[in-house]
Amino acid sequence: MHLTHLSLTDFRSYPRLDLLLEPGVTAFVGANGQGKTNLIEAIGFVATLGSHRVANDAPLVREGCAEAVVRSRIVRGDRAALVEIQIMPGKANRVRLNRAPLQRARDVAGLLATVLFAPEDLALVKGDPAERRRFLDELLVARSPRMAAVQADYDRVLKQRSALLRTAGAARRAGSRGDLRTLEVWDRHLADHGAELLAARLALVEELRPRVCSAYAAVAGEDSPTDLAYRSSVPDAPRPGADAPDEATATGLTRGDTGNGTGHHDTASDRPAGNDTADGSSATSSASSGIPAPDAAAPRDTPVAPAVGAGADAPNDATPEVVPGVPGAAGADRTGGDGTGGAGGVGGAARRAAAASTRAGLAEAILAGLAEVRSQEIERGVTLVGPHRDDLLLSLKGRPARGYASHGESWSLALALRLASFELLRADDREPVLLLDDVFAELDARRRARLGTLVAQAEQVLVTAAVGADVPAELAGTRFEVAAGEVRRVG
Ligand SMILES: Nc1ncnc2c1ncn2[C@@H]1O[C@H](COP(=O)(O)OP(=O)(O)O)[C@@H](O)[C@H]1O
Ligand SMILES: [Mg+2]
């Protein structure tokens, strides 16, 4: 897929911007602070309804303004979709798809698939587990947009269950027994939704493993063995790559000491980069509250914002504005379809059946895990078992990358995770738009050229660099100059 239009109103440093884009490579070149990353961030926002730089939306709105609007036109094969997102800090964002308001903003997540490479990616290797959970969860949504609803459901249940635990804890401390019957109902919900998310993450990690290894070799130019392993807080959950070294064993810590199992935990450091909840529930929850019903707050015929290029550049009405896999658009049941637009999706009936049996097993494992830690949970008012406490362990040459890998190795591993994501999405027939924000400056000439060759195959690649010469020759293409919020085509 690719973008043909991006237009911004009061987004970051841009009062107003209209950009026409083409497939192939486009580089945005300009000195620091001129607004290059702001562009990339806006496109990333369309894909994930979140920013890769900040956890809440307020900084995305231009100083002194009440709201920002990002509009984009996405083309996939012979279909096109117009997505308009109105970002209103402190309120639910409003989304219009082909000019029709969507009930829930999150229904647009994953419609645009992107893979974003950015300096912040180093945190995938060196940062907290929340970074890696977010990596997995965003990739799940990019592959299968209905996963946004699965994640939002899980986050919602997690919040409610944890609130109940806090109430029960307070009651217990006050000497009464508290109402624990309701808790059992929430255990069940948590287990069901958690199992669905967990099953999806486990399957994803299996698919990523070989691809990360080959992408590492391709970008680093050396065949150092890399591996991924999913470490779950759920006792007895199947673990892809269970033989990979894990920080806990490598450092001699026990499960409880890693900040991931039943040990001390509620430090800010293990919270998601997205929404800070006491549990570290996944970062997608910002979109979970949805938007008010259109007739409650935004009458249907009140435009959220003018359409992209409402004049000469208006989308050609002859193009069928079919929206692959965005159920809310047509009022369809979100459990139907996986957003691959009839391309067959990521698996057939047999695979779904297998997933269902795995899910049932995982749900039981979560329930058993919760039973084990019940009194601790009540004492602390925190849900201690579930995918919001899990981690993706990355290893290099048999050692955990976090804590052992050099700066250069960490970079190569982060790039390998992104390249593997690109490959997976391609294999799903969800060719993503590649966004490379200022990454070439971080790399030596050889890795720069190798990365350039690897990403040049994508349908659309948008690159930023402070210095034009940093963009490798492999990525020659259209060029824009970015200066003081003006974006001008120069080649
Ligand atoms: N909410 C905002 N309102 C106004 N200006 C902003 C806002 N957020 C960031 N900026 C400005 O945007 C510029 C940074 O843009 P950025 O895209 O990160 O630059 P770069 O070209 O280095 O990638 C800075 O000058 C910053 O002050
Ligand atoms: Mg930048």
Helices and strands, with pairings:
Layout: E1 2-11, E2 14-20, E3 24-29, H1 36-48, E4 68-76, E5 79-87, E6 94-97, E7 100-101, E8 114-117, H2 122-126, H3 129-143, H4 147-173, H5 181-220, E9 226-231, H6 247-250, H7 294-297, H8 327-330, H9 349-380, E10 391-396, E11 399-400, H10 401-404, H11 407-427, E12 433-437, H12 445-455, E13 460-465, E14 478-483, E15 486-489
Parallel strand pairs: 3-13, 3-14, 8-12, 12-13
Antiparallel strand pairs: 1-2, 1-4, 4-5, 5-6, 6-7, 9-10, 10-11, 14-15
Helix pairs in contact: 4-5, 4-9, 5-9, 5-11
The structure holds adenosine-5'-diphosphate and magnesium ion.
Write the CATH fold name: Rossmann fold
Ligands, ions, cofactors:
adenosine-5'-diphosphate, magnesium ion
Q: How many helical stretches? A: 12
The assigned CATH architecture is 3-Layer(aba) Sandwich
Unreliable stretches covering 5 or more consecutive residues: 247-346
CATH superfamily, called what? P-loop containing nucleotide triphosphate hydrolases
Average pLDDT, to the nearest integer? Answer: 81
Q: Would you mind describing this structure in some detail?
A:
The protein has helices at residues 36-48, 122-126, 129-143, 147-173, 181-220, 247-250, 294-297, 327-330, 349-380, 401-404, 407-427, 445-455, and strands at residues 2-11, 14-20, 24-29, 68-76, 79-87, 94-97, 100-101, 114-117, 226-231, 391-396, 399-400, 433-437, 460-465, 478-483, 486-489. With 491 residues, it is of the alpha/beta class. The chain has one domain (2-489): P-loop containing nucleotide triphosphate hydrolases (Rossmann fold, 3-Layer(aba) Sandwich), CATH 3.40.50.300. The longest helix is centred in the middle third of the chain and has 40 residues, at 181-220. It is globular, with a radius of gyration of 22 Å.
